[in-house]
């Protein structure tokens, strides 16, 4: 639940978080749908903890040779999302960090997760959602946990990394993608993300300033299969040094000593081989599971699009059952 920040397997609080499209154009519908809602919230619902922020994406040609790069979609030479943002433009050579070859800039959003997650919880409560805590050995146990006192017709499986061990799912395609970050007091001129580093393929450079005084996230790492939840001080030092090297103004000209650390963090992204799983599965007794997990680094980016897809699966099923003579009320 929001506030349970002592569990790195609950990755949402540890994310930056932002909206920088990562998917190829043929698979962009979920991101397109999500952007419409995040943009609306940033413009008209300040209590949600989302604000507009310029972002610069910078790439090196040599990084793009790795076909399996984590954020390659963001660094495409001719990205489909250039038409999504009104102020999209390519960066001039003079604006690039040392060793980087090309880039672009546009206005997107950054999310203060410590505000946004409780706000989402409040929106659910406002709409009549009932909450309870329970530890399940199998997803099928959720069928009898409905507050209505009757067995549930639908179970939404959004257990993230937990889907690797949850009975009735046991998806061995799930793995942690360890991310280490540093939260600092320093402000930044713009959100920035870079295609690669000189410190190895699992280490990254990005920075983003959270809304409503939430500090600035410096990152990071992407360590697939690493379950270690303890921040590594050597990695933290490299993260800070990379940020200072690529954007010296963050440290106000004081080098690494100019970074004012609030805390260190580790989160385990719910990576899934083959990508997100959104599909419907019958478990008998008029009960269906709709799976929605495996979002990796992409959870906030596709959140509303994925939720809409889940809703469409449920509504489509209800219509089909109604047409087959099964009462919708039963579902």
From TrEMBL:
Q: Which Gene Ontology cellular component terms are annotated?
A: cytoplasm
Q: Name one Pfam family in it.
A: DAO
User: Which residues hold FAD?
Assistant: 139, 159
In its keyword annotation, does this UniProt entry include S-adenosyl-L-methionine? Answer: no
Gene3D superfamilies, alphabetized? D-Amino Acid Oxidase, subunit A, domain 2, NAD(P)-binding Rossmann-like Domain
Q: Note the PANTHER family from the entry.
A: D-AMINO ACID OXIDASE, D-AMINO ACID OXIDASE (AFU_ORTHOLOGUE AFUA_5G11290)
Return the similarity comment.
Answer: Belongs to the DAMOX/DASOX family.
- The name of this protein is FAD dependent oxidoreductase domain-containing protein
């Amino acid at each position: 639940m929001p506030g349970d920040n002592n569990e790195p397997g609950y990755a949402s609080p540890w994310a930056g978080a932002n909206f920088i499209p990562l998917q190829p154009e043929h698979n962009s519908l979920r991101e397109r749908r999500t952007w419409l809602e995040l943009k609306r919230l940033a413009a008209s619902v300040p209590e949600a903890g989302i604000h507009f922020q310029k972002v610069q994406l910078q790439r090196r040609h040599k990084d793009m040779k790795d076909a399996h790069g984590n954020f390659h979609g963001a660094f495409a030479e001719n990205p489909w999302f250039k038409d999504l943002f009104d102020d999209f433009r390519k960066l001039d050579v003079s604006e690039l960090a040392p060793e980087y070859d090309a880039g672009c800039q546009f206005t997107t959003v950054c999310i203060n997760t410590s505000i946004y997650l409780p706000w989402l919880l409040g929106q659910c409560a406002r709409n009549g959602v009932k909450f309870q805590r329970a530890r399940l050995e199998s997803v099928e146990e959720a069928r009898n946990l409905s507050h209505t006192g009757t067995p549930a017709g639908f179970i939404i499986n959004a257990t993230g990394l937990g889907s690797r061990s949850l009975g009735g799912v046991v998806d061995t395609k799930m793995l942690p993608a360890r991310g280490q970050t540093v939260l600092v007091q320093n402000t930044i001129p713009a959100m920035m993300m870079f295609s690669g580093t000189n410190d190895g393929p699992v280490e990254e450079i990005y920075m983003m300033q959270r809304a409503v005084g939430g500090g600035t996230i410096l990152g990071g790492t992407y360590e697939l299969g690493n379950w270690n939840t303890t921040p590594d001080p050597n990695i933290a030092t490299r993260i800070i040094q990379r940020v200072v090297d690529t954007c010296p103004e963050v440290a106000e000209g004081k080098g690494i000593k100019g970074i004012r650390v609030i805390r260190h963090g580790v989160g385990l992204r719910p990576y899934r081989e083959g990508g997100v799983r959104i599909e419907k599965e019958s478990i008998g007794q008029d009960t269906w599971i709709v799976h929605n997990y495996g979002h990796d680094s992409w959870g906030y980016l596709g959140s509303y699009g994925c939720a809409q897809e889940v809703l469409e699966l449920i509504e489509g099923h209800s219509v089909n059952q109604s047409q087959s003579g099964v009462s919708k009320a039963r579902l």
